[in-house]
Amino acid sequence: MLDQVTENLPSDQYLIINAGNSFDRNSPYTGIAAKYIVRMLGLSGVDVIGIGPTELLLGAGNLKKLLSRSAVEMVSANVPGFLPYIRFNKCGGRCKVLVTSVIDPGVLKTLTVKFKPVPTDPVAAIRKIEKEVDHDLFIVIIHAMDKRIAEIANSCPGIDLVIDGLTHGITKKIDKKTVMPLVMSNRRGQYVSYLDYRPDMKPEFTQPVNLWVSREKTAEDLQIKKLAEKYDKEKNEYGRKLREERLRQKMMKKTPNLYLGYHACESCHPDNVASWRKTRHADALATLVRKGKEHDVECIRCHVTGMDDHDVIGGFSSFEENPWMVNVQCESCHGPGANHVQQPHKNRMKVGRQMDCRHCHTYTTDPGFDFDKKVKIIEHKAVQSTKP
Ligand code: HEC
Ligand code: HEC
Ligand code: HEC
Ligand code: HEC
Hints:
The chain has helices spanning 3-6, 30-43, 53-57, 60-68, 105-109, 122-132, 146-154, 215-218, 222-252, 263-266, 270-276, 284-290, 297-300, 330-334, 338-342, 354-358, 371-377; strands at residues 17-18, 48-50, 73-75, 86-90, 95-103, 137-143, 161-168, 172-174, 180-185, 191-194, 209-212. The chain has 388 residues and is α/β, with parallel strands linked by helices. One heme C (HEC) binds at residues 280-281, 283-284, 287, 302-303, 328, 332-333, 352, 356-357, 359-361, 366, 374-375, 377-378.
């Protein structure tokens, strides 16, 4: 899969590391995805994966079961019960590369889910391995927020390279007495970073380079391609059943149909509609179409309006049923509008808040989400009040 980089190198001269945190905890398809992803990573020649918060969410038992069916290993220095590290002998035994991973218990608090097993102190765990295991090079994947990454790294002077397991984006450096490169994992695995290291010279890494990996490229291996197809089939079948079941429950509860679509807002809020049209929300479906993903149940729910609403029907359900509910429209953030349009003063719409964004701008799809900054980008206030 990484032929672009590894093509001319003997396998004894490179190491492929996956930072982990690969699963979307909000997705109903995570269980299915995990099954396939772990196997695909094994087939892709990944040498080691760092256990991150979303791997823990699968549960230790499930994770072990998945690993037993894959060629890849997962490590964590501070999650009890897993391999604490792996040491690779590279360059004809001239370079012993020690790789481990930690989770800062602080990040788990933000997830409001009870984790088992509970991670221990990351700094103590890293130091212990560094002291006890002979090595030439020490690579640590750290799952922690920005500032904590620097704190943890600076408390462990023996680390040669830190991989940021949480923040998505392009490479940056963190402060350390000797400036240490920091490779970031990237959004949805669409990028890989690589850097060169020469053990024979003064041990130093080059600045990391980022590569775009398309699914077509990763699927050039026939086995992986087959798995990807199987995954799509299983997921879409599950999605269809899930949708039918939800619809059935809503019918039984006599759930009201209150979604209208943005045309219903236009008469009274023409300026808001006009400026919303200029935001990326208004073209969110086109983005999926460009990727050939508009029928993928895993993708569509955040690129349309009201699909995951459990209380009210009328949100997007299919292209046949209500194609006018595509894209991220007004009612994604303001809630369904049928009562409001009848008596606007009496039935107020809710004004979008952080919570309303987080449904789609999740920990996985938009980890660095900053409400105050992003809300300015989607500004769609009426220039002059046109409200009657
Ligand atoms: C018949 C006219 C009319 C239609 C149609 C209409 N609105 Fe309104 N909207 C109003 C009026 C009037 C107000 C001011 C309400 C008030 O301040 O009491 C308002 C206020 C709002 C507010 C501000 C809420 C607040 O409390 O500050 C939002 C958001 C909103 N509308 C969204 C929508 C959306 C979304 C639609 C389409 C589904 C829509 N409106 C359709 C008349 C309308
Ligand atoms: C129904 C899901 C959904 C909701 C709710 C939602 N967004 Fe988005 N948002 C998206 C999608 C999907 C895109 C990408 C659209 C594209 O480029 O095709 C996006 C893109 C954006 C962008 C442009 C890209 C970027 O990240 O800079 C901003 C800004 C943004 N959203 C802000 C917000 C804010 C603020 C809220 C809450 C008030 C919010 N969104 C609520 C789905 C959503
Ligand atoms: C949980 C909600 C959610 C799901 C599920 C989701 N997206 Fe998005 N998507 C977003 C949001 C939010 C953005 C805007 C975030 C940003 O650009 O910072 C976005 C942006 C994008 C973009 C444009 C920016 C980029 O990263 O290149 C593409 C392409 C995209 N999504 C494709 C997909 C595909 C393909 C799937 C299914 C595998 C998918 N999305 C599933 C919420 C989601
Ligand atoms: C991605 C989420 C999102 C979408 C989509 C969205 N809004 Fe809003 N809207 C907000 C937020 C957040 C605020 C309050 C923040 C602000 O002042 O910009 C707001 C404010 C408003 C207001 C009150 C401010 C004013 O102009 O007086 C109106 C009215 C409104 N939106 C109407 C609409 C209409 C109509 C649409 C669809 C064409 C729409 N919104 C789409 C999030 C959204």
